[in-house]
TrEMBL record:
<feature type="domain" description="Ig-like">
    <location>
        <begin position="140"/>
        <end position="232"/>
    </location>
</feature>
<feature type="compositionally biased region" description="Low complexity">
    <location>
        <begin position="260"/>
        <end position="270"/>
    </location>
</feature>
<protein>
    <recommendedName>
        <fullName>Ig-like domain-containing protein</fullName>
    </recommendedName>
</protein>
<dbReference type="GO" id="GO:0050839">
    <property type="term" value="F:cell adhesion molecule binding"/>
</dbReference>
<feature type="domain" description="Ig-like">
    <location>
        <begin position="23"/>
        <end position="100"/>
    </location>
</feature>
<keyword id="KW-0325">Glycoprotein</keyword>
<dbReference type="InterPro" id="IPR003599">
    <property type="entry name" value="Ig_sub"/>
</dbReference>
<keyword id="KW-1015">Disulfide bond</keyword>
<dbReference type="Pfam" id="PF08205">
    <property type="entry name" value="C2-set_2"/>
</dbReference>
<dbReference type="GO" id="GO:0098609">
    <property type="term" value="P:cell-cell adhesion"/>
</dbReference>
<dbReference type="InterPro" id="IPR051275">
    <property type="entry name" value="Cell_adhesion_signaling"/>
</dbReference>
<dbReference type="GO" id="GO:0005911">
    <property type="term" value="C:cell-cell junction"/>
</dbReference>
<dbReference type="InterPro" id="IPR013162">
    <property type="entry name" value="CD80_C2-set"/>
</dbReference>
<dbReference type="InterPro" id="IPR013783">
    <property type="entry name" value="Ig-like_fold"/>
</dbReference>
<dbReference type="GO" id="GO:0005886">
    <property type="term" value="C:plasma membrane"/>
</dbReference>
<keyword id="KW-0393">Immunoglobulin domain</keyword>
<dbReference type="InterPro" id="IPR003598">
    <property type="entry name" value="Ig_sub2"/>
</dbReference>
Length: 287
């Protein structure tokens, strides 16, 4: 016997003897959280809400581990119900939610809490322990939708030259995540190896060759939603220029040499200076 069972049962019997019936841990049913976009997720929460002052069921929403406001599109209906074995001191409430979802509701989760002014006047922020928090929470919603758009880019985006490298990138939006197939148009037998970089499919071409690599490339994205195939096809072109190597031409100029030659004119005793300029192997005499 669990050590906490007897005191708990005795407390419950004492409270019932006094005419007080505590609320019970809620249960979920009719839960539908995996749906196509623009369809509805549903859940029904049932719990005893206490007696004689009946409590009520409240709903909270969470997304990606954080508390969020209940979507404005949500519809909540509640009613009192009975189950076999209920006595006149049992007040049982059933609350149902319906939410028409789109892709922005991805991973949303709904939780119901039982609150009663005499027993549990406030609800906790999160449904951590259903037994003590008096709560029940759905699994995160999985919203599927067909491919809606595609984006193709390349890096670098500048002019491509032979011998360089380039990375082609392709991303399509859809859930389930699409699979990708790359093809060089006109050379469909060529195998292009692609890898996933996060949500982006990439193909890297190295040592670009103008005759082999220039041209159009196609990216095909495929996903399947409710047994229907959806395909997006996009194209990107590569223009490759020849790798022009610029060579610098150095013009060497023979230094100008200035030489002074002294000569003595015939019949005089005074020397006369003559300048000889030598340029590029040529000589010029200036008297």
């Amino acid at each position: 016997m669990h050590p906490n069972w007897l005191p708990h049962k005795l407390d419950e019997k004492i409270m019932r003897f006094k005419g007080l019936v505590p609320p019970t841990v809620p249960t979920l049913s009719n839960v539908q959280t995996g749906v196509k976009e623009n369809s509805s997720i549903t859940a029904t929460c049932t719990a005893g809400v206490g007696y004689p002052k009946a409590g009520h069921i409240v709903w909270k929403a969470y997304q990606n581990g954080r508390s969020v406001d209940l979507p404005s599109e949500i519809v909540i209906t509640s009613m009192n119900v009975s189950q076999p074995g209920d006595d006149k001191c049992t007040v049982r409430t059933q609350s149902s939610v319906t939410l028409k979802v789109n892709r922005l509701h991805q991973n949303i989760s709904l939780a119901c809490f039982v609150t009663n002014q005499d027993f549990k006047p406030t609800t906790p922020e999160t449904c951590t322990d259903p037994a003590t928090d008096l709560c029940a929470q759905t699994d995160p919603a999985v919203v599927t939708y067909p491919l809606s758009k595609m984006n193709l880019t390349r890096e670098p985006a500048s002019t491509l030259y032979e011998g360089a490298r380039v990375t082609l990138k392709c991303q399509a939006e859809g859930n389930p995540l699409p699979t990708y197939t790359w093809t060089k148009v006109g050379d469909e037998n060529r195998k292009l190896s692609s890898v996933m970089d996060g949500l982006v499919s990439t193909v890297t071409l190295t040592s670009l060759n103008k005759s082999l690599d220039a041209g159009d490339y196609s990216c095909e994205a495929l996903n399947i939603v409710e047994n229907e195939k959806y395909i997006f096809l996009g194209f990107i072109s590569l223009i490759i220029d020849e790798n022009i190597t610029q060579t610098s031409t150095t013009i060497q100029k023979t230094p100008t040499t200035v030489t002074t030659v002294t000569k003595t004119p015939t019949g005089t005793g005074s020397p006369e200076a003559t300048t000889v300029i030598s340029e590029s192997g040529n000589s010029k005499i200036i008297d």
